[in-house]
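Risk register update: the risk that structure generation would not scale has been downgraded. Supporting records follow, first protein first.
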Amino acid sequence: MLVSDLPPWFYRGLALVFGALWGSFFNVAIHRWPREMSVVSPPSHCPHCRTPIPWWRNLPIVGYLLLRGRAACCGQKLTPRYLFVEIASALLCLAVAERYVIEQPGATALEDALVTSLLFFFFIGGLLIATFVDFEWLEIPDEVSIGGTALGLATVTLRSPGPDVVDVAIGAGAGFLAVHVLLVWSWERLTGRRGMGEGDPKLLMFIGAFLGWKGAIFALVGGAFQGMLFAAVSFALRRGKGEDDAPAAKDDEHAGDTWVPPPPLELSDGTTARLKDGARQLEVEDDRGRLLWDYRAVAPADDPLRRALPFGPFLALGALEFLFFGERLVDAYLDLFT
């Protein structure tokens, strides 16, 4: 069969349903993988009271709306993330169908177009999972980054249009090494603290395995720019509300050193965690005293960069932008110099 043998509305309807169904699975992975739980067993159950959820109450999007965002078993409020991820998954699957099926020449083999679409949709699913896990846990599951990298490298010849074998090999390897050497290892040696987490280089490796070296560079540069813009806007909004003036007043009120910090928590591998600054700051150090993580619930007014900000979501955003618009944007930019 050829792409032209079926009408566009069929592909669009199928993509919306398929994407919403997989969005339900992505929600399961977002909840379970950071907790080191299987996504297969036990079956779907209420996150509050552990009651099994029957399939008719687990329908994507529809189930959440019919239940009005509350669990039918115990009445507890459900996070709106469930609805958002399912809608986003459906819409992104539709975008993939438009890009890799409907917009392809009518003489393209339908099987090739569907395989390419399916692989890029799973790539997008990995980005969705990484985004929401990083927002909540400040980590990126290896199931996404390492497993996704293996899938991307193994299926490079099945994705058309897409980068070739050399491009994805360079993209995966250089993407990982560039971030790990420059922004993790070197930054730690220069400043004594981590510039990025260990998950960010592996996520860029995953992106390079699907989008090639151009996509990896675009995701890194575009993600960094958008991350800095987000941090600047957030800081400006907080300053506008006067939130950054609150810590000084509280420090004056408790200047008598009435708060006694608890003893540091020491793990078997030598890692130490301690609370400071009236329990508003958490520091984690390794067995050699090097700072691994420094989180402040309220950062000083003159140091907005001390606030914890996950970088994975911005890498994922840059990767999505390149997947759908990147080649055109890069070509238009290069045309300015030719």
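Supporting record for the second protein:
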Amino acid sequence: MKTKRTSLNDIAKALSVSKATVSFVLNDKGDQFNISKEKQRLIREKAKELSYVPNFFAKSLRQGETKTIGLVLPDISNEFYAELSKTIQEQLYAEGYTTFIVNTNDNDEVEKVLMRELIQRSIDGMIIAPSNHITNLIPILLETHIPVVFTDRPGDENADFVGVDNIPEAERLVNSFSAKPKHLVCVAPAKSEISTIQERIKGITEVCKTAGIKVSVVELPGTKEETTAAIKKEIDGGADSFIPLNNKCAFCSLAAFNALNLSMPKDVRMISFDDSESFEYMNPTVSALRQPVHEIGLKTVARLYERVKETKDPGKHFLLPCEFMSRGSH
């Protein structure tokens, strides 16, 4: 059976002191209000005895801040976002903040619901890797005055954003193959309308057009068998080079190559836009563009911290460089 939560008043009655005296002591203001050391000791001991837990929201209301930040991510099962959330949470903790992490599963409606729920919990700021277009998020963001920083996926040109410049980074991958591709395939996630994916496709297709390389885009179907069939269709059509547009697409592509008994780089060549620690242990090792995930997380928190301190600077885009990991698959 659930017992009644211990209140300041319960402690005050047990010691025959005022509720204000208890509040001052438990908020570390006993010396400031000339409360004796002995009385402070008794109050703290009684609070421990009665299993007193401070009312977080009441305390936050008095202080005008909750020291909490909302982190909205599209897929925390993705290696990229797992590392990003770890960096952000650890850095915020070092700054004295607690992080509320929510996963939208790249669902537009779920994202809007979770954002509103975070705002209702009086968070001090929000970090978002959005699934929705910014126009769909503006009504929600206008409901509150809290600072917001977009990470990995931009909001708009006027909002703070930390990530990479996807178009030129994708362009250079086309020129990184050991031999000029004849037919290059972009392997995209099912939800390919996401801004970062569209930018990567744009960068690749523009270079291919200039270089006279045939290019096609394959959106990953639902099952492993369907993915293998889609990759086989491209191979039968002359595809010799592949650029999966994130590491999940890379793993799906590798599974399809294996099912079709294709070896890299003999039968097909591949460079992943997005690295994975496991790529170094495969045979052959997988070439990839490594995004600066840790640095993105650190810069995101630093920018949000500036916003929490009420900086009046206009929104800025901080674009960090990627590193090409030349291995054995390209």
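Residues 195-211 form the longest helix (17 residues). On this basis the risk owner (M.S.) recommends closing the item.
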